[in-house]
Design a protein that fits this description.
Blueprint: H1 5-33, H2 47-63, H3 70-86, H4 93-125, H5 134-159, H6 161-172, H7 174-195, H8 203-207
């Protein structure tokens, strides 16, 4: 299902801050990870795991809000990309190749992230929360989800800015903007049409008696 223009723009507006959070989680980890290891790159103590869990959680929290509507965001960007380059006499093939590659990476990130999320939610449903170890089990499941989602979260953070880039290019391109306007108008028309109730019969229609059918009743079918 296509996103309505308002939701689409709201999601796009959150991308720069979310990707910055994901990249910051990686940068912060890179800045401290060596200090938590010995000369052979072995963790010194439990601080390593604690800090790694924090890194994973920060990246997942920045990524998770896009899982529900990620496919629609990508479909919208791909449509814009096709429109942008359909009538270009001298297309920038290097930019097109990069953008398409980034969209492919984002597809993989969303698909992987959704698998991780769904598996984690299924496991959580199996936990007996009133069991003495229930809360600890839920905590461990969250840690596991964040760790398994780390790669997908960072892939998203590294590439999602291309969605904003394509959106801005489409807004500056007359053909793409006209196509967007037509799509939005069609969506609004479908919504309005669906909301219009069947018209009530007019006074004339109500007062006109029905002619009986031969050999039958005058009751309407």
């Amino acid at each position: 299902m296509a996103l309505d223009p308002t939701t689409y723009q709201m999601l796009l507006a959150t991308i720069p801050e979310a990707t910055a959070r994901g990249r910051r989680a990686l940068d912060d980890w890179d800045a401290v990870s060596d200090s938590l290891c010995d000369d052979n790159h072995e963790p010194l103590d439990e601080r390593y795991d604690i800090r790694q869990h924090q890194r994973d959680a920060e990246a997942w929290d920045a990524f998770a809000p896009f899982l529900d509507h990620g496919p629609e965001l990508l479909a919208h960007a791909e449509e814009d990309l096709r429109t942008l380059h359909a009538d270009v006499e001298h297309p920038d093939f290097e930019t097109i190749a990069r953008q398409r590659s980034q969209l492919t990476e984002l597809h993989g990130a969303i698909e992987g992230g959704r698998r991780v999320r769904d598996a984690s939610e299924f496991a959580r449903e199996m936990v007996l929360t009133d069991h003495p170890s229930g809360e600890e089990t839920l905590r461990r499941l969250e840690v596991l989800r964040n760790a398994e989602g780390w790669h997908y979260a960072i892939t998203w953070a590294d590439n999602a800015d291309v969605l904003v880039e394509i959106d801005q290019a489409a807004r500056a391109h007359p053909t793409a903007e006209r196509a967007r306007t037509a799509q939005a108008q069609a969506a609004r028309t479908r919504t309005t049409t669906a909301a219009i109730p069947n018209p009530a019969p007019t006074a004339t229609e109500q007062s006109t008696p029905q002619q009986p059918r031969p050999g039958g009743s005058s009751r309407s079918r």
